[in-house]
Amino acid sequence: MNNKTVRIALCLILGMIQISVCAQQKKKTYLRPKIMKLPPEKFDSNNPLVKILKEQQFSDSFVWEINADSLLVPKTVYKEIIEELGGASYYTDELSDRVVIRQSATVDTVKLKKIDNKNQEENVIGPILSSYLKLTTYTITIKNDIIIFVDDKTKKEEKFKAFLNKQKDKIIYLKNIKSNKIYSPGKFEGPSIGM
What we know:
eight-stranded antiparallel β-barrel, alpha+beta, single chain, elongated, two-stranded antiparallel ribbon, 10 strands
């Protein structure tokens, strides 16, 4: 009988422990998820410039280059290419707010001659054997027909006025407001799109 009493006492003790453990567990409460509002669009979808840029291809670019008889000293920028301007973002259907400017500068002193009958598709400046290349990334904002580039590192702003055709469906050229440089549509010179 002694053995039977120990078993009953042990069962009672284990049962009490089980009941006290279950009583201490908190009930799970489910909180309602917060209703998140979609962030406002970064760009005004009614602006014709925004519509044009949204339809731009990744390989479209705008080029400024020196086309004059001149003597370039070392480290003179002779060509700038605005790349990756426009197109839809990878993650949303909105306009991408990123852009790259590729600057080419001379290593040595170079004498340039003006190219008179330059093909619009070509943006070859001539016999420059070696050059520096500088890539700068920017975040863009658009106000009416002005595209504002903000340097990601220095936060310095550059403003470009976009000149559209009469139908307002194509950019004829971009003009840097500060330097008055004209950037015409040109050939993409960056890495292949698949990279």
